[in-house]
Amino acid sequence: MGDIAIAKGEKTAAKLNVLAKENRVSFLEVDASNPKSLDRAFNNIDLVVVASSTTKYTKNVAEIALEKKIDSFDILYSANKREILTKMKDKIKEKGLCFITDGGFHPGIPAAMAFFLATQFEKDSMKSCIFNGLMKIDYNATMIKATQNTKDEFIEIMMGEEFHHFEQGKWVQRKVPKMADIDFGPKYGKETVITKNLDELKEIPEKIPSLKDLSISMGGFPWQVNYLGFPLCILA
After folding, report:
1. Whether residue 135 sits in one domain with residue 93
2. Distance CA 234, CA 236 (A)
3. Do 131 and 211 lie in a common domain?
4. Full-prediction pTM beyond 0.90?
5. Are 131 and 44 members of one domain?
6. pLDDT digits over 165-214, tens only?
7. How far is CA 67 from CA 64, 88, 89, in A?
8. Crossing angle, helix 58-68 and helix 79-87, to 10 degrees?
């Protein structure tokens, strides 16, 4: 396990070892902005899992992983990150490596859910696939504790949003996202959801030709993000 924050990293590694009831996790100081630090950290490993707010250093991590011939998995959401990795696709294939990106909850799960749902219908009969998700996170408290890198990445995500929707059998680009109030039941009540544009959705209509409408919307953001953050980023 690697992190630039030594005290935090050592504490987390110790907690994981307590849960495992054996010393399975070791800690190493790693600075993603420093290729030499990555080179030292990537010795004698088979897979690097990137779960830190380091999308700005995607090229560093990917290049060292290629050099060391190790696979990579990240749970990060960043248009810039995907662009960098896409440019490196041929090199990754030449090395016989596997780089998995956008591997979190969203992105990550929606496409898998869509393909699973298609198996529950008769062949070529699923016409619509609409996801509405809710993340109950205290964003205000989270952002207060967050590092500057995490805050920067959150702004990057909003600034980099493109609103492409698959409607009536074709992709449509919108200037603003769709918003709707969805009832999530007695426990959570009504929440405003905003449509998201995930790269993983793009291949779904190709593999499920019967599909006419496809979208994913997420809710749980504070009102400041819904009604100030996203509009300001769109205008920017």
Report:
1. no
2. 5
3. yes
4. no
5. no
6. 899 999 888 777 788 899 999 999 998 888 887 888 888 999 999 999 99
7. 5, 12, 14
8. 30
